[in-house]
Amino acid sequence: MADMVQSVELLLDTELDDAVRREWQMLFDAGLPSQARHRGASNRPHVTLAVADEFASLDARIGSIPVAPFPLRLGPLVVFRGRTATLARLVIPSPALLDLHATVSSLVGDARGSRSHTEPGQWTPHVTLARRLAGAELTEAIDQLHSEPGVLIGNASALRRWDGDGRVEWFVGGSTQNR
């Protein structure tokens, strides 16, 4: 079993969250892998800003980051390849998103087990739609979503922390929407 990790995540406003959940449901209804299969209360669309094995002193520091809602645009589909594929929507970078990511990255830069793929310049902001897709499933998933809008528009609403070991989340900044 893989080690669980901790993360700092950007949550979406209600309308954008609902739009992503509709796409999750389309995949689920087609019998495909989908984030909709995860029924836990903490499973929600998000943009991962930072990942590490442990954020020992992060919470006190990150709680001071103001997260006012700002526009967030989800663009075209993207595929991340490994043994299987992950299907996601790219997040179109904005100055507000890049500034928030840089702030979070500067706070977690020394965290134990920090993952380089979330560092500025190496980060691909996205919202995951489905994981562990085999070849034919990936093709079918893309076909299922082909009629969806090319860009989903909404706002970022809050920051949360996720502890994969404890399987718990807590909110550290932003509005109370989607909590």
UniProtKB/TrEMBL annotation:
This is 2'-5' RNA ligase. InterPro entries: Cyclic_Pdiesterase. Keywords: Ligase. One of its GO terms (molecular function) is ligase activity. It comes from Rhodococcoides kyotonense. Gene3D superfamilies: Cyclic phosphodiesterase (3.90.1140.10). Pfam families: 2_5_RNA_ligase2. The lineage of its organism: Bacteria, Bacillati, Actinomycetota, Actinomycetes, Mycobacteriales.
